Amino acid sequence: MTAIEAESSGCGAGTAAAPEEHAVHGYHHRKDEHLKRLRRIEGQIRGLQRLVDEDVYCIDILTQVSASTKALQSFALQLLEEHLRHCVADAAVKGGDEIDAKVEEATKAIARLLRT
Predict the structure, then answer these.
(1) Pick from 116, 29, 28, 113: which is nearest to 77 by CA?
(2) Which residue from 25, 60, 79, 87 puts its CA 20 to 30 A from 1's CA?
(3) pLDDT in tens, 22-79
(4) Angle 3-9-12 (CA atoms, 0-180°, nearest 5)?
(5) Rounded to an integer, what distance in angstroms lies between the CA atom of residue 69 and that of residue 63?
(6) Separation between Cα atoms, residue 77 and residue 85, nearest integer Å
(7) Residue 108 confidence (pLDDT) above 50
(8) Cβ neighbour number for residue 67 with a 10 Å cutoff
(9) What is the per-residue pLDDT for 17?
(10) What pLDDT sits at residue 84?
(11) Which of helix, strand or coil describes residue 60?
(12) How far apart are CA 14 and CA 105, in angstroms?
């Protein structure tokens, strides 16, 4: 995929090691919603720090850890769904080797999520 193609589709336009600055990814249309959700999760994590600092009972802290973990998992699933609907679907339309690469990429991402 050329840089211009990557920029226009956003799919595969970058990895964590080499992101593209102008790519439009599948989550782009819900970016503000995602950022709000991540800020809420960040607040949960800060709450965990406060609970530990205040010597709250272990089980109460673990309950909050579970809630934070579920919130991150839910966010990850939403992002994965958007990736499948946008990037994988785009690759399927284009055909060729790109679809195989996108399916493999998504499969590896799902495997990472299952390990957590």
Answers:
(1) 113
(2) 79
(3) 566 767 778 899 999 999 999 999 999 999 999 999 999 999 999 999 999 999 999 9
(4) 65
(5) 10
(6) 12
(7) yes
(8) 14
(9) 43
(10) 92
(11) helix
(12) 12
Cβ pair 105, 11 in contact under 8 A: no
Cβ-based neighbours of 50, under 8 Å, separated by 6 or more = none
Structure tokens at 73: 């998992």
- Among residues 49, 97, 40, 98, the alpha carbon closest in space to that of 71 is found at 40
**Residues 6 or more apart in contact with residue 113 via CB below 8 angstroms:** 73, 76, 77, 80
- Its pTM stands at 0.73
Q: Which tokens hold the place of 61? A: 């802290």
Distance CA(86)–CA(25), nearest Å, equals: 8
Task: Report the C-alpha gap between 85 and 22 in whole angstroms.
Answer: 20
